[in-house]
Design a protein that fits this description.
Number of strands: 7
Number of helices: 3
Helix content: 10-25%
Order of helices and strands: EEEEHEEEHH
Structural class: alpha+beta
Radius of gyration: 19 Å
Length: 172
């Protein structure tokens, strides 16, 4: 059980801002939808990447901050729907990264997703990404290697392997 916050004239006021609130979380939760289509060149998966200028002209998977009281599965499905118009079924979490974005500490949880919509029916939200593409793992790694993705090439390889393992278990 937590202690009540002190009150009275002998207590100095707390400084303002989210870090001053003792009940504030250490980091906000963000989600990333890892969506691949298997019918890409030779049956190898291709990853949905959005061209995002708000992240410094990067190609990254769709995602954003979870809303208050929202679980990870609902958050990623909502973010993917809002950013792309696509419907997904979330298979499960496969990668997490503690990062800072726009001055805010975020715990970004990447979720493996199965596409339920037409893969070419992407509808970008007006204030979001300026483009989209299906990229092979190698293409995504190349974008990362030259700084055109906020992901590292190593993390792209890791997450591709983890998503494949989750999909294999999901097929059982």
């Amino acid at each position: 059980m937590s202690e009540p916050l002190p009150s009275g004239r002998d207590v100095e006021p707390l400084p303002s801002g989210p870090a001053a609130d003792p009940r504030a979380p250490y980091a906000r939760v963000a989600v990333v939808g890892l969506i691949a289509r298997a019918d890409h060149r030779g049956g190898r998966p291709a990853w949905l990447l959005l061209h995002r200028v708000d992240l410094g002209d990067c190609w990254d998977p769709p995602g954003g901050r979870a809303e208050e009281g929202e679980d990870l599965v609902s958050a990623v499905a909502r973010e993917v729907r809002e950013e792309t118009g696509l419907e997904v079924r979330v298979v499960g979490p496969c990668y997490a990264l503690l990062t800072v974005h726009k001055g805010e500490r975020l715990l970004a949880v990447s979720m493996a997703c199965r596409l339920l919509s037409d893969p070419d029916a992407v509808r970008l939200e007006p204030e979001g990404a300026i483009g989209w593409r299906w990229a092979s793992e190698e293409e995504w790694e190349e974008l990362a290697a030259v700084g055109r993705s906020s992901w590292s090439a190593r993390d792209v390889r890791r997450v591709a392997a983890m998503v494949a393992a989750l999909w294999e278990v999901d097929d059982d």
